[in-house]
Amino acid sequence: MSGPGAFTQTFASALLSPEAPRPAGLRDPSGVAATRRYDVYRNNVSVALTEALAAAFPVVERLVGEEYFRAMARAFAQEHPPRSPVMATYGAELADWIADFPPLAALSYLADVARIEQARRDASQSADAAPLEPGTLAGLPPEALAALCPRLHPALRVLSLGRSALAIWARNAARPDLAQSRAREVLVSRPHLKVLTLAAPEGTAATLRALARGTPLGAALPIGADHAAIFGCLFEAGAFAADEALIHGDPAR
Question: Is there a single domain that holds both residue 89 and residue 151?
Fold first, then answer.
């Protein structure tokens, strides 16, 4: 393969591989071989990607150490180069990559910690919406409440994790209130201006996934689960978006 396209691919690939040879034929504006310029540029790209990942996954970096994280970030970047110039979104695949990265197999909780951090980043970047206030439903009869299909808040994320992941994240993220949690279900949301991370009762994830499929509220709540605890957690998280048409039973919905 040759031509401008092949050169561009070689140029970009070598940027993410410090051990790769410099692309042949590079020249600076004066016509001199641009070896040093390319090396500086390659280093700047590596540093920028590593810093973007460190900013998005500070607990992961803390758990593995700064030096190891830099090496890990370089390996990740070679497999997942940026697809957007917006670095605030870079690294969305990191949790799944960690789960499949053999050198980190002993840290079975690390991928889940990364999932919490990614969910928090997703929530912070999601669209705004007013959360549904619990009092809005207070006057509805039980049968009307059970028939509702509330719209989920766009910032809401629900996670099903290993039992230690939330506590490990919390101990390294200044969240002592969750440092002893054994919850396997976690809600991340941003109903107002602050990202929330909450331990959720068992059955919360199943409820939300059923609601996302359009299942009415009464059928979405798992049999045997603590429905009051689930409702309390969902409203604390601002899990539902305010929707007047829905509340008043608009038949078009």
Answer: no
